[in-house]
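--- STAGE predict ---
source: upstream dedup step, 1 unique chain passed
mode: sequence only
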Amino acid sequence: MSATSASGVKRNAAANDSEGAITKRYFVRAADVPPYHPANHTGTTNRRLIGPDTVGAKNLEVVLGVIERGEGAAPHAHPGMEQVCYLLEGTATAEIDGERCEVRPGDSCYFPAGVMHKFTATSEQPVKVLVIYSPPYGESPERVVRA
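--- STAGE serialize ---
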């Protein structure tokens, strides 16, 4: 038996639980997670892999992003929330509080809570990046400040 969360991700219901409680999933396939286009970004498609809606995570969120050349996140900050980007494919420019770095596959960048940052894809092929938020972001408008 399965149930579908608010994000559209199927979760397994306990087979012999009379109250119909949801069994937490521990494994998530990107193809099973609906894509979305985040606010304050252009040319970007995200999939929220790990978070409250997919596995019940309370303290972190992991997002897979695909960003087209010359596109990405406009300058913004997340008060009370840290963010990490780990580049899987392509190249990008990360700007954090006035510092700028070209990032390649295997590179990471850290965005401290409340610090303005920007992320732009620079490679011919789309950039694939894992983004980790703590606590979970969930695209909540009150958790972002735009420049």
